[in-house]
Amino acid sequence: MKESEYRNNSQEENNARNTDGIRNENLEEKKTEKDIEQKEDQKLEEYGQATLEDNEGKRKIHLLTIIGEIEGHENLSSNSKATKYDHILPKLAEIEDDDSVEGLLVLLNTSGGDVDAGLAIAEMIASLSIPTVSLVLGGSHSIGVPLAVCTNYSFIVPTGTMMIHPVRMTGMVIGASQTYEYFEMIQDRILSFVSAHAKIAYDQLKRLMLNTEMLTRDLGTVLVGEETVKEGLIDEVGGIKDALKKLYELMETASS
Predict the structure, then answer these.
(1) In the prediction, which pLDDT does 73 show?
(2) What is the CA radius of gyration of the chain?
(3) In this structure, are 80 and 2 located in the same domain?
(4) What's the pLDDT score for residue 167?
(5) How far is CA 94 from CA 63, 124, 200, in A?
(6) Closest listed residue to residue 131, CA positions, set 108, 156, 106
(7) Are 15 and 138 in the same domain?
(8) Where are the alpha helices (DSSP H) in the chain?
(9) Is 87 among the catalytic positions?
(10) How far is the first Cα of the chain from the last one, in angstroms, to the nearest whole number?
């Protein structure tokens, strides 16, 4: 074989290897992208969480959804939509420790649930150092009220509802004065938190909680859309566009 032919063959082999290498790299990149997409889809399906970062400013926002019933120390039935606080709390700690996350958007449509679990999530969100915005969709009842007001700014859609009522307990209840004192203590925790994070006074909130004129079989008050703003629970009536716009504004202010 002539030297020129040998060089040509070697060059062709090198080109082929390079082509195979590029093809393998492209396949690896596609596989990595697919794995990331699958993980994001799984995270959204299992935990109701996602990362929003395809916006114009490439700002990284964590989306947290609180849907169904807030699950406490006992598991709810498999037929119930539930938000598990043992999934939410570690994620909130991770968000606080992640410098790349610039804001948190919380979407709520909850019937309430475990008081301790709900307050734990609300306290964690309230203590985050990044800007936070909540949006009530459908409803945010009972312990969902503290969750709706724990952010820096809150929105509710026009048809969204919030129910404020006394603490309820299931199972055996001991008919002693200490039991009622314990109930009062739990209600005080809720009232104090909400009044500290919203524009409603403690006494006014308690009046709404113990209202006997609205619900036929229960105490409490149901507020719809604009009524929540008038009472001072929610900052503004709006939708997802308004909530994201406000969050961008808060993030811009925080970074300046």
Answers:
(1) 67
(2) 26
(3) no
(4) 75
(5) 13, 11, 31
(6) 106
(7) no
(8) 3-47, 85-97, 115-126, 144-149, 177-197, 202-209, 226-230, 240-255
(9) no
(10) 70
* Residue whose C-alpha is closest to residue 151's, from 124, 170, 175: 124
Examine the residue annotation and report whether 73 is marked as an active-site residue of this protein.
no
Domain count, the chain: 2
Determine the structural domain holding residue 37 and report its residue range: 1-47
Cβ(130)–Cβ(86) below 8 Å? no
Average pLDDT over residues 209-225: 82
134, 140, 142, 195: the catalytic one is: 142
Residues 30 and 121 in one domain: no
Assess whether 63 and 19 both reside in one domain: no
Please state whether beta strands 161-164 and 153-156 pair in parallel, antiparallel, or not at all (unpaired).
Answer: unpaired
Exactly one of 134, 140, 154, 165 is catalytic; name it: 165
Q: What is the pLDDT of residues 105-142, one digit of tens each?
A: 999 999 888 888 999 999 999 999 999 999 999 899 98
